[in-house]
Amino acid sequence: MTTFPLWLNLLIALLIALSGIITLVGTLGLIKLRHFYSRMHAPTLGNTLGVFCMLVACALVASFSTQKLLIYPLIITVLLVITSPVTAILLMRAAIKRELRQRIADYAPDEPGHMDMPLKSKGNPPSHT
């Protein structure tokens, strides 16, 4: 069993604590923010950065334990950084398309009005009565 130096223990503890705090803030943003589009940013950023800190801590522990650089936690981090924002963008685009077809009051009655989205048709805008 290898003993970790104090500076490494402190760095790993800091990364794990930071990961928990960032993830908690992202979760609170999901709960507290009212509009769907606002809600998408907090958990996406919290998830990405929180897991990034946790995986860097895991990479440090695994690399120091085996006395060689392990890259698989960093590969997981890169894949997460790529996929999490892409998923959020796809969800937002689906919400925008839904909002173009349906009044926001029908699926989010506590939210004001419609988003100002450009209309694709050149004729009169559709009425929402």
Key terms for this structure?
mainly alpha, 71% helix, 129 residues
Characterise the protein shown here.
This protein is mainly α and 129 residues long. Helices cover 71% and strands 0% of the residues. The chain has helices at 6-32, 36-66, 72-101, 104-107.
Structural class of the secondary elements?
Answer: mainly alpha
Q: What can be said about the biggest beta sheet?
A: none
SSE succession: HHHH
Helix percentage? over 70%
Share of β-strand residues: under 5%
- Extract low-pLDDT stretches: none
- How far apart are the termini? 71 Å
Envelope shape: elongated
Tally of DSSP helical segments = 4
Q: Radius of gyration over alpha carbons?
A: 21 Å
Oligomer: single chain
Total beta strand runs: 0
Average pLDDT value?
Answer: 78
Short note summarizing the structure:
The protein has 129 residues and is mainly alpha-helical. The chain has helices at residues 6-32, 36-66, 72-101, 104-107.
